[in-house]
Amino acid sequence: MTTIEHRIGGAPARGASTRTAPVYDPATGEATGRVLLAEPSDVDAAVAAAAKAFASWGDSSLSRRTKVMFRLRELLVRHEDDLARLVSAEHGKTVEDARGEVVRGREVVEYACGIATELKGAYSDQVSGGVDVFSFRQPLGVCAGITPFNFPVMVPMWMHPVAIATGNTFVLKPSERDPSASNLVAELYAAAGLPDGVFNVVHGDKAAVDAILDHPGIAAVSFVGSTPIAKYVHGRATAAGKRVQALGGAKNHAVVLPDADLDAAADHLTAAAFGSAGQRCMAVSVGVAVGAAGDALVDLLKRRAEAVKVGPGADPASEMGPVVTAAARDRITGLVAAGVDQGAVPVVDGRGLTVPGHEGGFFVGPTVLDRVTPDMDAYREEVFGPVLAVARAATVDEAIALVNASPYGNGTAIFTSSGAAARRFQREVQVGMIGVNVPVPVPMSYYSFGGWKDSLIGDSPVHGPDGVRFYTRAKTVTARWPEARRDADFNFPTSS
Ligand code: NAD
To answer: How far is the first Cα of the chain from the last one, in angstroms, to the nearest whole number?
Structure first.
């Protein structure tokens, strides 16, 4: 069994950590490693290493910083398979799906390769007689990231490439459930020529998080995770005077109108609900069938859900792997049971699924609950598993009202052949990321990613222009340079 250590100042470190947490292979249910859980003094050590590195990295040239990003990008291509396999082994998602998150994370590194363009300032000539005004942005110092289990490569990469390319140094506290990929990323940064201490990894639980939130040496905290913890992190870190971006949970609705291509919509809803066993913040967890779309859509979803191939993530034949832990499995099946008790119709019931040869794995089969209503626990709670709730709406107005009544506002999608309906939907829904005939509308890295309402606490989305703004602060200079008076003199100059 391996011990997963911190990575501080460019070297593996155990620090003062004596506590550990087990890391599982979700496909077998067996513990494959144990991860160190940091004490506050380990966070101190990482912040000290990052602060020391900031003295020179924060002053390094744009070309030096972007060269590191270009090299990192190449190393991420070369190690795509290694990263994907590490993610799959600890998270449970299929290797192909994990490859997708590595690619989407790498796209943020590609964005960071062009950081020089994003950091161009503004210049106003002659705002007054002989006076010019210009502005430019500088890094904040030591920044920290606290990230969830569901995208152990991509979500941290929403943060650290932008922070580091803009001149900051970084302390990452990844999820303790799938920690290994972050250590490989640290090694790739080192191989790319990043100086020691610019990128540090501290593993841990609440004790490490609290030490980060209170640490006077940390200027900014980026968080992605569930809404209650996002609110907690935002409150505590802003009270400590830090800049905070905090992305929370989600309940994403896909609205299907009767004029949509129902076959295509059912394909997309199935993939978006059950891909990664539903453990995506942009997963479709509610299908809203409008009017006559209802019964036909549910019938198609039933057939698609029953056909999903469930198995270990490392098996190329698997389309869907297990969920991350036994506790997650029990939570999900409990919410399905509550839904059925409260009147939902279990069209496909994935409870109790076993995969031959992997009887100890944390598997839940694809589940479709029809006739779900907003008062049911399976609707109100973020299930975060392979469960698609289907709600019925009589009209587009009713569907939009349902989406807008949700406390969450991360992603949503509409399936229709009507441009007018799509346009109305995109203008009226109170959601940050919208798909039109696209089920999982994750913005490209050069746009920013972030939801509305309880899906984003505070006001800063990640990466793209908002990410650059978050990790830098502006200076505005008003300058006058009076011309030095100097009379011409034919005599040989002296110092007097
Ligand atoms: P989580 O909130 O349990 O954990 C996130 C991080 O917070 C982890 O690093 C964890 O160690 C830490 N943490 C957990 N409990 C804590 C506590 N009591 N005090 C301090 N720190 C604590 O989330 P998770 O289960 O790892 O991830 C799934 C959640 O993340 C879902 O709600 C999902 O929607 C959300 N998510 C959101 C987005 C988004 O873009 N909005 C993206 C990915 C995941």
So the answer is: 79
Catalytic residue among 262, 269, 281, 324: 281
| Surface-to-core class of residue 374, CB atoms within 10 Å of its CB (0-12 exposed, 13-18 middle, 19+ buried) | exposed
Residue 101 confidence (pLDDT): 98
- Alpha helix locations (H) across 247-389? 262-274, 293-307, 326-341, 377-380
Residue 81: other Cβ atoms inside 10 A: 12
Atom of ligand 1 nearest to the CA of 225: 30
Whether the CB-CB separation of 424 and 447 falls below 8 Å is answered with no
- Residue 493: band (very low, low, confident or very high) from pLDDT cuts 50, 70, 90: confident
Three-state DSSP class for 13?
Answer: strand
DSSP state string for 148-212: -SS-TTHHHHHHHHHHHHTT-EEEEE--TTS-HHHHHHHHHHHHTTPPTTSEEE---SHHHHHHH
CB 214 within 8 A of CB 236: yes
pLDDT over 70 (residue 478): yes
Q: How far is the CA of 225 from the centre of ligand 1 (A)?
A: 3
Average pLDDT of the residues in 50-72: 98
The answer to whether 143 is a known catalytic residue is no
CB of 149 within 6 A of ligand 1: the answer is: yes
Name the packing angle between helices 154-165 and 62-78 (round to 10°): 160
Token pair for residue 211? 């030490």
Domains in the chain, start-ordered, CATH in brackets? 2-248+455-477 (3.40.605.10), 252-436 (3.40.309.10)
Q: What is the pTM of this model?
A: 0.97
